[in-house]
Design a protein that fits this description.
The chain is of the alpha/beta class. The protein has a six-stranded mixed beta sheet with strand order 6-7-8-3-9-10. The chain has a domain at about 5-95 and about 160-220: P-loop containing nucleotide triphosphate hydrolases (Rossmann fold), CATH 3.40.50.300. The chain is about 30% helix and about 25% strand. The chain is globular, with a radius of gyration of 17 Å.
Length: about 230
């Protein structure tokens, strides 16, 4: 299993007490599958994603990424883990305005020390996989919102992560583009074998994912109706 959270509790300071953002959460995301976490604003979805991404250390419990238990790791070690094994699709693409679609991806490979030639080849392969083979030379202002989100997804896959974490990928898209992005994420997950965890408040696009679970007040409830591939 590429991503496993076991008995995770996370609290934040709240005056003289502490607010419980996650309450003994356990969740496993198998390789090659998409698990969607749904729930209202403030339910703990973002905290769950941040813990899975090793951006926040929980009060207790364990997070295991691709067989590596992150408990006790230093900041440098978790940064290396994220760079090498975790891809993150942020809610807003935040693409660099001066770079082409291909260059957005190549920057990620450069950070990881890959050769420019290999980086260029993989970038073009991924852009083809997300349906943007003919847009590699275009800059963000020349792309639609849906196309920018596709570049965002391809960029997250650039360093061949084993875990893919996705934050509200359809929030800025209309229904048709949102559905297309979720279908794309599911297809790429199955093809690339990543363990994909996405959080969303919108259930309208989730027919393609492999599993849906609900979070309320920091606790995972019984899975909602699982969906077949």
């Amino acid at each position: 299993m590429s991503l496993d959270l076991s008995d995770v509790t996370l609290t934040y300071p709240d005056g003289d007490t502490r607010l419980k953002a996650l309450d003994r959460v356990s969740l496993t995301v198998p390789d090659g599958s998409v698990t969607a976490v749904v729930g209202p604003s403030g339910s703990g979805k973002s905290s769950l994603l941040a813990v899975a991404a090793t951006l926040i250390t929980p009060d207790s419990g364990t997070v295991t990424v691709d067989g590596t238990r992150t408990t006790g790791m230093s900041r440098r070690e978790t940064a290396a883990l994220r760079r090498q094994r975790i891809g993150i699709v942020f809610q807003q693409p935040s693409l660099l305005p001066s770079l082409t679609a291909a260059e957005q991806l190549q920057v990620m490979a450069g950070i990881d020390g890959r050769s420019p030639a290999r980086a260029r080849s993989r970038a073009l392969t991924l852009l083809d996989a997300v349906g943007l083979a003919g847009q590699a030379h275009r800059r963000p202002h020349q792309l639609s919102g849906g196309q920018r989100q596709r570049v965002n997804i391809a960029r997250a896959l650039m360093n061949e992560p084993t875990v893919l974490l996705v934050d509200e990928p359809t929030s800025a898209l209309d229904h048709t583009r949102g559905a297309a992005v979720l279908d794309l994420l599911t297809r790429l997950t199955h093809q690339q074998g990543t363990a994909t965890l996405l959080v969303t408040h919108d259930r309208a696009y989730l027919t393609a994912v492999d599993r849906v679970v609900e979070v309320h007040d920091g606790r995972l409830g019984a899975p909602a109706a699982d969906t077949a591939r």
